[in-house]
Amino acid sequence: MASTGFAVIADGLVKRYGDRRVVDGVDLAVPAGAIYGVLGPNGAGKTTTLRMMLGIIEPDAGARILLDTAHPRDAGDRVGYLPEERGLYPSMTAREAVAFMAALRGLDWQTGRARAADLLEAAGLGHAIDAKIRKLSKGMAQLVQLLGAVVHRPELLVLDEPFSGLDPVNQERLEALILAERDRGATILFSTHVMQHAQRLCDRLAIIAGGRRRFEGTVDEARALLPQQVHYVPVRADDTLPDMLPAGARRHGEEWRFVLPTDGVEGLLKRLIDAGYGIAGLSIERPGLHDAFVRIVGRDAVAPGPDTTA
């Protein structure tokens, strides 16, 4: 597998636990320098896929290349990883925790502490530099752990459900940090089941459900799988208005919503005006990533239950 232009390539990855295929032939190609999302419901196989890519667990079939090596662990010092299971030493201060993770990646203690202080300040946690981890909120501690994953300035940053449990303020801080790492030149690979983060951040994404890849492409390409929706508000309405609208039109308060006709909306609007209904409001919108996700995943959009191998 040639990896030119790609930070990570997965080719037909398979992982079985007993009789169940948690990952069933997943292919992924993560462009270098991009923000790439792996989306899917809980239990879809996202975490298992990431762990195989990183060499934490071995696939039962398939192959992967991580930063131009077929042996992912050989590239360990060039990777930053935030696992789904969070964990920091509670007696350490925030600066010590980040410096400790820097030392694990080969940085000396002095450099690690200096970088830790700079990162904490930039992330809005300067007031907590010398606070014990046990004294921090869950969101603050999660950001500290993330800073520990980037302190050695990795080429590839892998984040497993990084937004889970964060309040809106810390979600914004995390998004800003991800964008800053991308601007620094790092490749970002993260998993999530929260569509709004992927829609805002991702250059490309893959949707996984039932252990299989169901889609790969850009956010716009995913959204383009669904037709555009017309949102129409009449000046007046009566019982005959629905007969004027396309089949399947649905009412939401004063607004009517329907699929954009294949021949456009101009003829329909003229007929509505001529019939005296008028136009008090009108917009044409492409459905969001959430709608595309539900259409792509279908029945598998709702996970069957908790699964530690998600």
From TrEMBL:
Pfam family membership, one: ABC_tran
PROSITE patterns membership: ABC_TRANSPORTER_1 (PS00211), ABC_TRANSPORTER_2 (PS50893)
Transmembrane segments: none
Gene Ontology molecular function, alphabetical: ATP binding; ATP hydrolysis activity
Iron in keyword set: no
Keyword annotations of the record: ATP-binding, Nucleotide-binding, Transport
InterPro entries for the chain: AAA+_ATPase, ABC_transporter-like_ATP-bd, ABC_transporter-like_CS, P-loop_NTPase
Domain of life, source organism: Bacteria
Key word Transport present: yes
PANTHER family xref list: ABC TRANSPORTER, ATP-BINDING PROTEIN
Protein family per UniProt: Belongs to the ABC transporter superfamily.
Protein's name in the database: ABC transporter ATP-binding protein
Source organism of the structure: Sphingomonas endophytica
